[in-house]
Design goal:
Blueprint: H1 2-17, E1 29-30, E2 33-45, E3 48-49, H2 59-64, E4 73-83, E5 91-93, E6 96-101, E7 109-113, E8 117-119, E9 125-134, H3 141-157, E10 165-170, E11 173-175, E12 178-180, E13 189-193, E14 199-201
Antiparallel strand pairs: 1-2, 2-3, 2-4, 4-9, 5-8, 5-11, 6-7, 6-10, 10-13, 11-12, 13-14
Protein name: DUF1439 domain-containing protein
Organism: Halomonas huangheensis
Amino acid sequence: MLNRMRLLAPFTLVLLLAGCFTLPTAGLYAFRLAVTSLDIEEVKVGPLSLDARLDTSDLTSLILSSLGTGSLPVQATMAMGLGLPVGLPAVEMSGFKWSLDIPGVNEELKGDYQQNVTLTSEKDANLRLPISFDIAAEQNRQQLQSVVGLVADLAREGQLPAGSQLSITPGDLKGLGMTLPSGLLTPTIRLNVDESGGLVPQAQ
């Protein structure tokens, strides 16, 4: 009986994780992994730290006066919540790869989260991912002013602009005494940010 249960465990986990095909389209689930929140925190332009309480009306002139160095990095923290639907057993994910496309930013933003993440249906895993790009990389004044406006919005609103796209490729999953290798049943998850700041799964 024990051996039979060990043999059934992999199939049980597969069925649990593969149940996404029966979920309603309103859910943010991709292979039972849910991105529950996505916010922007700790926006920093060069040495200047911004937040929602700071008046950013003079940010353009401040940044333009700082471009003589040829490089002016923007740094921020992307706060992301990950979880599982109610009723699923806890799963250990061995990190994940991510990429972020923000309209108006020419640089490719991506990273590799290398820490293990415990996913449960009771409490979301709240992660912090660093993002950065260089304002001085923009080629003309119009592009530069557009990106400056974007940075001000990020600091003021604390969320990604509409049209942003987030991709997540989960690492190996461990649960019920077995391991599912990355890519077997957990392909890349792709989400769009809509006009209200909500997350919408991309059509596969």
